[in-house]
Amino acid sequence: MTRGPHWEQAPDRDQKPELNLFGTDPLSEDAEPTLDTVIVGGRIPVGERFEEAAIGIRDGRIAAIGSDAALDRHARARIDARGLWILPGAIDGHTHMEAPAFGAQSADSFESGTAAAAAGGVTSIIDFTLGTPEIPLGRQIDLRRQQATDAMVDVALHAEIVTSEQARLEEIRSAVRAGVSSFKHYMIYGERVDHGALLKSFRAIAAAGATAMVHAEDQEVVEAATKQLRRCLPQGMMSLPRSRPTASEAVAVSVLVCLAELTGAHVHVAHVSTAAAVNLIAAAKRRGVAISAETCPHYLLLDEEVYKSENGRQFSVVPPLRTAADNAALWDALSCGAIDTVVTDHCPFPRSAKDRPPDPLQAPCGLPGVETMLSLVFSFGVRTSRISLSRFVSCVSSRPAQLFGLSPTKGSLQIGADADLTLFDPHAAWVIEAGALHMNVDFSPFEGWKLVGKTRSTLVRGRPVFRDGEVLAAPGWGRFTPRHTNRDVPKKETP
Fold this sequence. Notes:
Blueprint: E1 6-9, E2 35-40, E3 43-46, E4 49-52, E5 54-58, E6 61-66, H1 68-72, E7 75-80, E8 85-88, E9 90-92, E10 100-101, E11 104-105, H2 110-119, E12 122-128, H3 137-147, E13 154-160, H4 166-170, H5 172-177, E14 182-186, H6 195-207, E15 211-215, H7 219-230, H8 239-243, H9 246-263, E16 266-269, H10 275-286, E17 291-295, H11 297-301, H12 324-336, E18 341-342, H13 351-355, H14 373-382, H15 389-403, E19 421-431, E20 450-460, E21 463-467, E22 470-471
Parallel strand pairs: 2-7, 9-12, 12-13, 13-14, 14-15, 15-16, 16-17, 17-18
Antiparallel strand pairs: 1-7, 2-5, 3-4, 5-6, 8-19, 10-11, 19-20, 20-21, 21-22
């Protein structure tokens, strides 16, 4: 097995190697050490291949990229990454840490959830404010930032829009100034924003150059399906996908495409689960509509057959798991860019919480995933040739940074970018066991799955936060990351 990275003081060298740096001014060979740390022996992604390179870090940022020998003499400390890939840190653009949901609360706090993120090579998460009509958006942002003070990786926020009141829409610009440039809407649940309110909200978001993010399930289709289901014989957990049919997502996405075209707003579709929705999104992109989309590992790799298993309740999630044909369509869409990013929608609940309600449709919906996302996408995407190496790096890192206003500081191996780095072993074989993960929950939807590819170490702003199975960061190392707006980005990837 390839060993993990090794930290040591950089050795003194008498020889004066020729420097081979990209994108930075040459370092004086006679100068005192000017880099805090250098990572040597690893390989960095360059298109569809990996090339040997060293990365020099200074003041939490990437300061130099070049040859091992050239940078080693200029660093105070070194990390030996032989046999490992050096990737831009993954960005999970959709998480729910310590959030109330379905009459319960997600099991991971910001501390435990970001410890799990660090162990999985995720260096930034984007979580959500807790939408409350009575509390101004600015105050919601402040409250959520306070909750996230124990985070171990960096945290950004989406703001939830749960009302169409004009006062709330006027708060969008102030939220953007506070570094929150995306706004989540629900087309279902008690937080539902109806079509007319979506139109008003999208206009305000377009004017601010921000992003409208939407949970796309049509309320009326779900209500009709659920009503019909109640008249049938009990179907156990298969009631979940039957009550939220494919049409519910397709109808909702159709509305979103129309509103995006009418308003010019950038619309981001959350956790896409169906082939029908993918086809609508791909067609809209080809017409130049500013629309983007994400999916999750559970929609790529699991299907509704798991609801028939003994542990069927544990897989409750919305949208529900679909069919094997939908899995295949999502992989195709991810490969060609119709789906932009992979996220986790990390919202875990303990087994006891899901087993408690007598009605399976009342079980809390949500699955864990922030710690296993990177390895799952690599193992079942790259290694099976479903997606290319460049798409792998894009969908988990560079693309979410572009879409959500974190680029170029996050999601890239560029001079001046934050030294958010994942040292990844592409040959490490391991088995997912919930008890061995760092999340605060006793269930993984991928329990027992055999993977190849594992995070060996994670750095956030140049500091090691995870190494060889151990979380190193102290609570609070993660910081709030303000985001900018960029409404032209979504049009750059067209299937």
